Sequence to fold (639 residues):
Amino acid sequence: MSLMRTCLQPITKAGSVLARLVKFLDRLSFELLFQKQFCMVRTVRHPALQSSREKAKRACLKHSLWICLLFFAAVTGSALEIQQAKWGFDGQVVWGRFNLLSVLVENPSTAPFDGTVNLYKARGLEQRVGALYASPCYVSPKMSRWVQFYVYVDNPYDEWRMEWGRAPEDHHDITAPKQGPPAQVLLSDSTTLLNAASAFKQFPDELFPPTVAATSGLDSVLLDHTPRWEPAKRQAFLEWLRAGGKVHLLENANGRSPIFSDELSVLNSPLPQLRIGAGLVVRHNATASQIQKQDLGEEKVSQPPSKPKESAQPLQTSDFFLGALSRLSRAHHNWGVIYLLTLAYLAIVGPGNLIAGRRLTDYRLRIGLLLATIGGFALLFHLVGRGGQREASVVHTLSYARSINGDSYNVTQWINVFATRGAHYTITHGAPHNLYATGQEHEPVNGWIQNGRDGRFFVDIPMFSRRAFLHQAVMKGANIPVQMESATGAGASDKFKLMIGADFRKQIVESWVVKGDRLFALQLNDDRLEVAGEEPLDALLSANNALQPFYMYSSEDEAIDVNGEFRKLVRPLIAWSLGAAEKKSGQIASFRPTDDGVQLFIFARSPESFGIAGQQFGRETGYVLYHLDLETPVRERKP
Fold:
């Protein structure tokens, strides 16, 4: 008994309750085997208990003790304290993108915390919106650690809350994020207690995400040391650079430039400027405390004059793209048959049953006839309604693929799933790291999201209903062999000729080129893409080319051209990829600078590798907008 008392002491403070239970069970011997916070109880048979009544009592008491021990183990789990929360890379987020949320949690108790930390957004009266973001978390006693979430932020009105238990104090409200442009940050050494003061906001290198899919809010990095990263973070940093990132290498306090190894050794070039994919590496003869923002030499985005307190909003939100996809899985019911069935049901269940009931003397037969009528018509309505959904689950996907290297792409997807069978679905993609979000701004979603390595989306989808969500990951796509043969002239007289590989040529639906502030439509001529039209880049923000077509009402019986509806999304998607924003007055707020480079956009059918893993939803129809940077000479800049 002393062993049992000693083992029970760490899991409960309600000693009086357990003391009475232990005293009542003095005739039994127990071995308590503890593993983490749960107790495994094995009873040892006492020779004095032989009768069946005593055996039954012993079994009942054993089950009662199980319940008590598990209850006390659950309610006495160690609590967490939130020490710090960081949004994005510089304390701000980019709307309409996946953003980082880094939270420093501390376990002040003497027992380890091993559980799940949940994050969700709410709007008004603490109503949850969307699905839960879940992150497994283990914190040793008296220790702290960083927990990272990858969340999709689409407006400034949401409130965010973290929860890790059922007790009233097991939650923490996260300060709402502020909106800003992609960040320019100095990566600080996490192993150094005191970092040099700088004109740039600092971001600890240990918090750099292990996937490039979580770097949408990062524009430029200043680096004066060699980060101690595991392979996944080194790979993510290089993929971010190849996809268009900018790295500024600085000197340390000793006047020496950092020397890199492993995958990062490509940064050791002595050249003042170096192109790596679509990214740029620039060396500076300055330390972190000396360099100023104007020393980076990056072009500023011109903005037209605006009214005071006028904010820029993302032009295309998740609601826009997901709403367009939802129209493609709309049901086509045979309303003529439904109306006839309704009239027949009213005639038979009313007058018909009354006339037939008068001829039946047994009341049980009259009740049986009524129930049979109701059940038969319920089955008929079910079959006719199911036929309107064509009895098939379907998935529609719109993808944006930013080229990283060869056939590797940073892919953002808007997905609409229509399910004919109600069930709890596990949705995942064939990528090492997956990021998911519901993009839901109005109601809670019965599901939870595990982002990061082997990320997946667990969701309840009712029968004959739709579920829309977003996904971002590094995925394998088409290897597009493209070469610029000519690019002559300047401004409005630019002419492009691009050679495209024969294997990919047949997959092209539309193609566009962006250079400076001009947008060029291309057409396929034999084995080359040539300019077919030209317009200012501002035309992408026109309401006639963007939002208006998808909010028009149409008849349910109207046939939908799926391919045509997808093609309507090309121009808005190009604007979204370039960071287009629109002010409340309708003016352009910003476009990301293109550094005088030539950016190629190709709209084509999605490859199978971009699809949802498994066959649980059947047919999947999707299109992808490939975004590639064509090789051009780098403009000379002063380091």
